[in-house]
Amino acid sequence: MIRPDAPVLLEIRDLHARVEDKEILKGVNLTIRAGEVHAVMGRNGSGKSTLSKVLAGHPAYTVTGGSVHYRGENLLDLDPEKRARIGVFLGFQYPVEIPGVSNLEFLRVATNARRTEQGHEELDTFAFEDLVRERLKVVQMDPAFLDRSVNEGFSGGEKKRNEILQMALLEPLVAILDETDSGLDIDALRIVAAGVNQLATAENATLLITHYQRLLDAITPDYVHVMAAGRILRTGGKELALELEERGYDWVDQELAALAGEVA
Amino acid sequence: MSNAQAVGDLVSQPYKYGFVTDIETEKIAKGLSEDVVRLISSKKDEPSFLLDFRLRAYRQWLQMQEPDWARLGYPQIDYQDIIYYAAPKRQEKKASLDEVDPKLLETFDKLGIPLSEQKRLSNVAVDAVFDSVSIATTYKEKLAEHGVIFCSISEAVKEHPELIERYLGTVVPSNDNYFSALNSAVFSDGSFVFIPKGVECPMELSTYFRINSGDTGQFERTLIVAEEGASVSYLEGCTAPMFDTNQLHAAVVELVALDDASIKYSTVQNWYAGDENGVGGIYNFVTKRGQCRGERSKISWTQVETGSSITWKYPSCVLQGADSVGEFYSVALTNNCQQADTGTKMIHVGPRTRSTIVSKGISAGRSANSYRGLVQIGPKAAGAKNYSQCDSMLIGDQAAANTYPYIRSQQPQAAVEHEASTCRISEDQLFYLQSRGIGFEEAVSMMVSGFCRDVFNQLPMEFAAEADKLLALKLEGSVG
Ligand SMILES: Nc1ncnc2c1ncn2[C@@H]1O[C@H](COP(=O)(O)OP(=O)(O)OP(=O)(O)O)[C@@H](O)[C@H]1O
Ligand SMILES: [Mg+2]
Predict the structure, then answer these.
(1) A173 — contact with chain B (CB < 8 Å)?
(2) What is the Cα–Cα distance from B15 to B13, expressed in whole angstroms?
(3) Which pLDDT does position A215 carry in this prediction?
(4) Residue A80 CA to ligand 2 centre (angstroms)
(5) Which residues constitute the domain of residue B379?
(6) Residue B372: which residues within 8 A CB-CB, separation 6 or more?
C-alpha cells in the first residue's frame, strides 16, 4: 500500500559493490517506505542476490560507493547480526545447511536476539515452544522440522518455508525475500504467499526478488523494478511485471546500449 | 578482518588455569636411575612386590625405544632433566579436610573443585591429586557403606595390597610400550576404585589432577575394578600452570570389568597447551586400556581433549568376555601449534563382542589433529560388530586433520563399518547464523558444540554442561 507520507524504512543511494575484483552493483537507487511491497526482477546474473547480500552484510561483498540508510541509520556500518536484530531480514535464495545445530535452538536464539534488541524479555524454552507452534501455522509446517538440524536434508521447498518461519518469528521491518518462490510446489507457493501477506502490515515493508508473475499474482507489489547489469533500469507498477512476462528482457539490451551511448 | 582470521582469534582464548600455587614442596633430585626408583618406593613405604614391579619395569624401559610412529613432532625429551617426585611438604594424608593445607584447598576452589564439606559437589566424590600425591578424597565413608573403595592408589597399596597385587599391571603390562614402562617404574599417585559384586556405585566418582611444580613430570596410575554385576561412572579432570618449558605427563589407566559389570570412564583434559607459538605446554603420553574380562561386561570411554601441547592417547578396550561391549566417544580440539594423535583400539576376542567408535576432531590455527584407530577382530570373535564414525572439523585454512583407521579381521562374518567426514565451518554458514541476529562467537560455538553433540551426550549429566562451557571458553575471545 502506497502512502507518500509513510516513513522511509530503507534508502539506497547510488550503491556500488564488488566481489573479489568484479564490480557487480553499479549504482543502485531504491527507496522503500513502510507499508510497501516492492518486487525486483531481472535476468540471471543481473545482481539481485548481490544486492540482497550487501544489504544483509555478507563479508564477501565490498561496498565501493554510495550509501544505505535504514530508518535514518547508516546500515553499512553495522555487523550482519546487528542488522538482523534491528529488523532487516534476508530470506536466502539458497539457505545453507548447518549440521548439528538444532533448528529449534537456532530459532530460539535468533528470536531472543531480536527480542533483546527490542527491549523485550527473552523467551525460555517453554514460552518459545508456544510461540513457535503458533508461527508454524503461518507456513503450515510440521513441528517435526523443529527437531532436525537447521535445513539439513530439507527439500528445496522445505528450506524456503523454514525461511518464512524465521521471518514470522523475527517480525522484521524490512524483509528481503530472494526467490522464495523458486522450488515451491503450487500449494506451497499459495501457503507461503498467504503467510507473507499475513505478516505484511502498515509498519513494515517487503522486497520480493522473483522471476515469476505467479508470485506477484498472490502478493501484489506496489512497485516493480527491473534490475540489469548492477542497477535498477526501470521502475513501474504491477503492470510492468505483466509486460515483462509478455516481452521478456530483450528490450533491456537496447536500453543498456542506449545508456552506454549516453555515457560515452 | 576476514572471517577466517576472526575465527582464528576466537579460538585463541587465554588459559584460565595457568596460575602457580606458592607452596613448599619436597622434591627429589632430577634424573632417573634404579636408585631413584627405589627412593620413590621407599618414600611411599611400599611392600616389596611393588618395588619389584617398579624395578622390572625400569629395566624393561631401559631396553625400549621411544615410539615415533605417531604424527607428532617435538624435540627429544631429556629423561634425565625431569624430577620424578614432588609433593607438598605437609603431605601426610590428613584424617580430616580441616587439616589439609588451606592453600591447597584454595587451589582446588579456584579450579572449580571445592573439597570442603560445605561447598563440595553433591553426589560426586572427588579425589584431588596435587603434583605427585593425593591430598584429599571426599565422601569416602559414604562410599564405604556400600562397600565401594575409592582412595588414592598409594593408600590402596597400604590398605588393600592384595587387590593391587591381583590387578595392577594385568591390563597394561609394564612393557606394553615405552611410556607405560616409564610410568610403571616411577608412578607417584592416582586413584583406585573397587566396586564389589552386585553394587551400583551410588555416586559419580571423580579425580582431579593438578600439576603445580615446573620441572616435575606427572606419572599417575589409575586402577578401576568392577566385580560381577557392578557398575560405576568415573570422571577425571586435569589442569596445569603455564610454564614456558614442556612438562611430561605419562599416565597409565587400567580398567577391569567382570561378568555383567559396566565402567564408564570420562575425561575432560585441559592441561596447559603452550602459547600461540607453541612454547611450553604439557606432553601428554597416556596409556588407557580397559579389559572386558567378563561376559556381557561393558567399558565406555568418553574423552574431551582440549589441552596439552602434544597428546598421544588411545583409550582401548579388550573385549574378551562373550557379548561384551566397548565404546569410545571422543572430542579433540587443537588450536595454535597443538598436536594431537589420538584414537582407540577395539580388540575383539570373544564371540558377539560389539564396539562403537565416535571421534570428533576440531582443528584450528596451525594445529594438527589425527585420529588413529585399530579395530581388530580375532579368530574366536564370531559375530563381532564394530561401527566407527570419525568426523573432522577444520577452522581456518592452516589447520590439518588426518584419519588413520586400521582394520584387521580374522573373522569373515564380522561386521565392520567405518564412516568418515571432514567439514570446514564455512563463511556462508556463519553468515547465515549472523544474518539471524546471532553473534559471531556464538555462531561458531553453536556449530562446534553441534558437531560434538553425539559425544557430549555421553558425558555424565554433571559434566556435560561443563564440557560445553569449556569448549565455548576455548572458542571465546576478542573478535576484531
Ligand atoms: N562470490 C562471487 N564470486 C564471483 N562472482 C560472483 C559472486 N557472487 C556473485 N557473483 C557474480 O555476480 C553476478 C550477479 O550475481 P547475483 O547472484 O547477484 O545474480 P542474480 O541477479 O541474483 O541472479 P539469479 O537470477 O540467477 O539468482 C553474477 O555474474 C555472479 O556470477
Ligand atoms: Mg539470485
Answers:
(1) no
(2) 6
(3) 94
(4) 19
(5) 3-474
(6) B70, B71, B314, B341, B342, B343, B404, B406
Whether A29 is in a domain gets the answer: yes
Instruction: Report yes or no: B423 at the A interface, CB cutoff 8 Å.
Output: yes
Domain membership flag for residue B339: yes
What is the mean pLDDT of each successive set of 10 residues along chain B, which is 480 residues long?
42 60 76 92 92 96 88 85 79 58 72 66 72 73 91 92 96 94 92 95 84 78 96 82 76 97 89 75 90 98 85 94 97 84 95 96 85 94 95 84 91 89 88 95 85 83 68 46
Q: Is residue B480 part of a domain?
A: no
Say what the pLDDT of residue B12 is: 47
Calculate how close chain B gets to A189, using CA atoms only, in Å: 23
Say whether residue A57 is in contact with chain B using an 8 A CB cutoff.
yes
The candidate with the shortest Cα–Cα distance to A99, out of A152, A144, A63, A140, is A152
ipTM of the complex: 0.96
The number of residues in chain B equals 480
Higher pLDDT: B278 or A77? It is A77
CA angle A189/A190/A192 to nearest 5° reads: 65
Q: What is the C-alpha separation between A132 and A134, in angstroms, rounded?
A: 5
Kindly compute the dihedral angle of the four CA atoms of residues B58, B64, B68, B70, in this order, to the nearest 10 degrees. Answer: -60
Average pLDDT of A106-124? 96
Residue A35 lies in a domain: yes
- B479 inside domain: no
Range of the domain at A219: 8-94+172-263
Question: Is the separation of the CB atoms in B405 and B371 below 8 Å?
Answer: yes
Could you give the number of structural domains in chain A?
Answer: 1
Residue A48 near ligand 1, beta carbon < 6 Å: yes
Instruction: Round to the nearest angstrom and report the end-to-end CA distance of chain A.
Output: 39
Structural domain contains residue A110: no
Count of domains for chain B:
1
In a domain, A78, yes or no: yes
